[in-house]
Amino acid sequence: MSGRRPGRARIFLLLRSAAAMAGLLAGVAMPVAAAAKAGPPAKYYLSLGDSLAQGVQPATPPLPPGVSLGQSIETDQGYVDDLFAHYSAQFPGNLQLVKLGCPGETTTSMLTGAGSPCTYPAGSQLAAALAFIRAHRSAVVLITIDIGANNVDGCAAGGVINQTCIANGFAEAQSDLPKILGALRAAAGEDTVIAGMNLYDPFLADFLTGSAGQT
Fold this sequence. Notes:
This protein is of the alpha/beta class. It is built from seven helices and six strands. It has helices at about 5-35, 80-90, 105-110, 125-135, 150, 165-185, 210-215; strands at about 45-50, 55-60, 70-75, 95-100, 140-145, 195. The strands form two sheets. The chain has a four-stranded parallel beta sheet with strand order 4-1-5-6, sandwiched between helices. Strands 2-3 form a two-stranded antiparallel sheet. α4 (about 125-135) packs parallel to α6 (about 165-185). The protein starts with a helix and ends with a helix.
């Protein structure tokens, strides 16, 4: 009997080792299988700016709960969404849209966070954008930005043009934009496309309201 115990012990140890190895292989196989099924790594389109970057539009029927007709709401019907749909064909299944724009943002509030209508954990929209770019530097393929309209958008209150307000707004934009764009360019990879968007004249639509608007 004593001569058989070492053999049984060896068999038991071998069985335990085989079971442990099977468990280890099973644990390894699952991530490998998951990785095999995973698609290509994500690429990002980062949208920055003001209400245009968020696709703000006047609400139309059917209205969401608590929203009145004509109220400004964020939608998926802005130029950013059109560009995203267009470029998604070049990155099938892995291009993701990240909107950081803030309705009402000026160049100064985007740069510093002071007076911004939006709250960003990083302190400002620019700081949030830079943090995202640094975290996904090789994966950000496109950045668009529209900013500056709100620097002067409030300079015609009551139909009266405040020339001092306009001059100050232009001066702020001329000072802030190089800092904003320079920081984005420095943070982004060499292959990242950065596009600055033109701004339409929001006051031009007033012409359609009649003589008061035309004046």
